[in-house]
Specification:
By secondary structure, the protein is α+β, with helices and mostly antiparallel strands. It is built from twelve helices and 21 strands. A hairpin with a 5-residue loop joins strand 11 and strand 12.
């Protein structure tokens, strides 16, 4: 089940709404699909990112945890990006690349409430019960159409699996027969106490949110992974836990962040760094000539430079990058910024880093309390690479 097209910034996708994260929309909630649901095969739908220090850290981490085979190299890529200029003039049936999202949860609660015995009740319905046109409301027993919103509660386990709560099973726990009567979300008072909010069945059975948080109330986890095409092979042995869908503990991204460090300041080095993804395999002048011949953008960028110069500079870059990779990312970044160089990086629009070490007289003024500070660096520009 997929939703209408929505737009997220790339930074949101990396830091808050990656695979498995729930995104709240006006009439439904969706879970962002895994990498097999990212549209990365369309021409121009993503761009390579050259950041060898991040790659080295990630490869070591993934190999240590058994998630990357020896001999397999990683590459960094942007998420699929909708470039409006690229699709300008395309046919109406042309869809830009994107990421598939699945409807989750599939339980909804009516927006309008009705008063019953001093309590406010709102009907619970499933996705399949919503009106097919728009899936934004359902037709009640009285023939009226009522708008809905996704139910705020789901279930998960310590291993990261996620699934809908089977509310009929949860409300009637301990009974051997399933009850097919309607369910409501019932609220009493205004305190927000979990004991005052219950899911009730027309048969009289009920479950308060306080009791829903009891260990093992929802039974065993079944290894559900709604952001992927398949569930966990072999299921899961953990117990399900009650989760509030919009709470901050519902999703924790694992993000590695590094600052791009310049290898040199001259124009040729910056050009090669920008196109290293296309030049990474070059070992000799013949390779350089072949790379430029087959890549018009590369040929235009390096016009005027000899193959000998290009190969020599690639070798220098590899040596500098190897030295940087040997250090932990934060250590390499600190060493450069604390180097005391008057100018770090370059003041150019395409530079990855530009900083200046300030003269002590500009910030100290012989104040004793500032004596322990070794230097102050003003960073004017930097490129930060965040890897999900």
């Amino acid at each position: 089940m997929t939703s209408k097209r929505i737009t997220l910034r790339a930074s949101q996708l990396i830091t808050a709404f990656g695979p498995g994260a729930m995104v709240d929309l006006p009439t439904r909630s969706v879970v962002i699909g895994g990498l097999d649901l990212w549209h990365m095969r369309e021409r121009g739908s993503w761009q390579p990112i050259h950041e060898p220090r991040a790659v080295a850290v990630l490869e070591a981490l993934l190999r240590a945890t058994g998630r990357l085979d020896d001999g397999t190299a990683l590459t960094l890529r942007t998420p699929p990006v909708d470039d409006e200029r690229r699709h300008h003039g395309a046919g109406t049936g042309s869809q830009p690349p994107g990421i598939e999202a699945r409807i989750f949860p599939v339980w909804f609660v009516a927006r309008e409430s009705e008063d019953v015995g001093g309590a406010r009740r709102r009907r619970l319905v499933r996705w399949r019960d919503l009106n097919p046109r728009g899936r934004a409301d359902f037709t009640g027993d009285d023939g009226r159409r009522r708008g809905v919103t996704p139910i705020p509660f789901v279930a998960g386990c310590k291993k990261g699996h996620l699934q809908d709560i089977d509310w009929s099973f949860a409300v009637h726990a301990g009974t051997t027969e399933r009850c097919g009567q309607p369910l409501w979300l019932e609220e009493r008072g205004t305190s927000g106490d979990p004991r005052s909010t219950r899911v009730v069945c027309a048969c009289g059975a009920a479950l308060s949110l306080h009791d829903a948080q009891a260990a093992g109330r929802f039974g065993d986890c079944r290894g559900k992974r709604p952001w992927l095409r398949t569930d966990e092979p072999g299921g899961c042995s953990e117990k399900l836990r009650f989760l509030t869908r919009t709470a901050t503990n519902g999703y924790f991204p694992q993000v590695l962040t590094v600052i791009s460090l310049p290898a040199a300041e001259d124009e040729l080095t910056r050009l090669i760094e920008q196109h290293m993804d296309a030049l990474g395999w070059v070992e000799c002048e013949r390779d350089s000539a072949a790379a430029r011949k087959s890549n018009p953008a590369l040929r235009a960028a390096l016009d005027g430079w000899s193959d000998a110069d290009i190969v020599a500079r690639i070798g220098q870059l590899r040596q500098v990058q190897h030295q940087m990779v040997e250090k932990a990312p934060k250590v390499a970044e600190f060493d450069l910024l604390a180097s005391g160089l008057p100018e770090i990086g370059s003041d150019a629009a395409d530079a990855k880093l530009h900083a200046r070490t300030l003269a002590r007289a500009d910030w100290d003024g012989d104040r004793p309390r500032l004596a322990p500070i070794g230097s102050v660096v003003a960073v004017h520009r930097l490129r930060e690479v965040s890897c999900l």
